[in-house]
Each structure stands twice: as structure tokens, then as C-alpha cells.
Amino acid sequence: MSLVAIESMASLSSTDVFYDILRRLDGPTLAAAACSCATFCSISREERLWENVCSSTWPSTNREDVKSLISSIGGFRKFYADCFPLIVCKEVTEYQWNGHLEYPEEWTESEYYGDNMGLESISPLDFVSIVDIRYKDKTICTKVLWGIPNANGSNTWFHNCPFRIDLLNYAARDDDCEGEVTLSVSDGLPPVTSMEKERKDGKLWKELQDSLCLSWIVVNRKLKQAANLASWSPLGGQRHWPTDKDFVIRFGSVLPAKDILPCQVVECILNMKFRVEGDGVGTALKLTELSMQLEDMEGAHVNGRNSLLILKEALSCRRSKNYREVVESWHLYSKVQSELKEEKMRNESRLDRLCILSGIAAFVTFWYYIL
Question: What SS3 class is residue 129?
Fold first, then answer.
């Protein structure tokens, strides 16, 4: 070893060495290291470390405007702590469907649909969407949307119509994925020789389910809060719909809606739609849709007014780093939702039979008196 190298090493303090070690760690490992000793705990408070972690986890945070946004809401360390754990809603079991009372007495139709109560402190312009899509650990798209489209001021149309954000329809400033977002065989896609064969073996569908990753972070600049509404990995989807060459991948989360909607919980649905172009080694997937919408237990779209209130509450609800807990919460929601649909079908079936019996009874009674 040369004398210069020895002198260079001697000039390094233990703090510099520890910093160099910690800056190479990912977020969970860095957080664990911070709990190991007082020295690591002190060094781990350095914002630059967490900026590097956020940059590797969410490439969209490399943008200067996003960096300024994160600094204004508390810094990168707080941002990571808020957005790396995923939302877990344990209130699903509290929902009890009442088949004969669509609107409980404490909920009037005007409160459910059109009242602006509670919206004074919420502005659609305060919300920012930070979106990253990965395929096999490679970033294929990053987008940042400032504000919620078509919701300027006290827009009655937005408040009363179904809430939906079609991210690809709105150009964000300095997007890293300007133009079309595509995946090809060179990216690791399995070649599709024919859609009939894909329908049978489902290799492309399985590859998308296993390799796609979505992060959709919502930030409220006024409240200085942020949360990740996505599930990282797909929760489901639908292949060959609406056409044979379309694949819909569904991400999302279950959000609390207590004191906002009668059902108490809603599902945040994040849809990613791809279309197959070409075949064989020329197989390519084109991203045609990236959207967010909220649905209640009965599958009805939540309107803009209630969606703003739900998004606000979601930024401060419980989260977990345990992905299994997140999936269990979603499966529980799906189970309760299925039971609700079955109960509605049974009630409708009972009503149909009652109507038929009433009709027969009326018919027999009529002819009884006639004859």
C-alpha cells in the first residue's frame, strides 16, 4: 500500500467511515442501523442519506421541483417514513350492510352527494401525485401531477361527478417519460407468438403480475402530509379485456371513510392498462392507461367532494411495512364486498319471488270472484 493511500486513510475520521457505510444501505437497513448505536443514530439523521434512499426508491424525487416539495413538508427522512409503509385499514370488519336502509337516518342524500361541508380547508390544488412505475427493478415511467385536474375553485361539476384521475391525459412538467411508455422483448418480456397461445398459457400475464411495481404517492402541501396509495405489487387485474390484446393490472389500497360515507371504507383503485403490439421477437407492450378512482362497498364510484375528504384522511391513517398485512386487509375487503353482493342478490331474489306470488294470488283472487 502506498504512503499516500495510508495518509489518506489516516485523515478519515470514524464518522466519515460510518457515513460512507450508511450511505450504501437501503431504507429499511438504514433505519435498522440507526437503532443499533448512538453514533449510527446521530449520523442517520443526515438528510443527504435519506435523499439518496428516496432517490433510489422513487426516481421521481430526483426532480428539483419534487426535492423542493419534500423539503417544504419536513424533509426526505420524514417523506420516507410516511411513504415507504403502505396503508392498512382495519375498519373493514366494522362495516355492516343494512339491506333495507340504503341511507341511514343520520345520512341525508344532500350530505352524501352535494354538500360542501368540510371542504373549506381542502383545496384540490394542494394535492400532488408522484408516480413511479418499475419493471424488473428498471424504472419505465415517472410522472408528477400538480393539483387535481378539472377541480379548480368550487367546481360543482367536480364535486358531484365520479372522481377519476387519468394520469396519461395530463402532461406534467419535465416528465422523464415524455411520449409513449413501452416494454419490449429486450426488456425481458416473453415473446407472444399468438394471442390464442397467450390465452392458454398466460406467460405474458404472469410476467406482468410478477414484475410490475407501482408507487402512487399523494402529497398535501398545505397539511405537509404524504402517503403511498399503491400496493407496490399488483392485487389483481383482467387479461384480454376489453379487447383480446389489452391487459389491465390493478393496484390500490383500502382507505377509511368513517364519518364521510355510510360504508365507512372505500377501495382506491389504481389501474394500469397495457396493449400488445407486434408478435414474436417484435412483441411490445404500450401503456395506454394509468388511472385512479375510488369505489365504495357497493361498487359505486365516489364523487369528487367525498374523494377529497377521503384522501385527506388517508394521509394520516395507519400504515405498515408488512406487505402481507396490506394484502390481508385487501382480501378482507374483497370478502366483505362479495358477501354484500350475495346478500343483495338474495334479497332481490326474495323480492322477485314475493312479486310473483303476489301476482299469482291477485290473479287467482280475481278469477275466484269472477267465476
Answer: strand
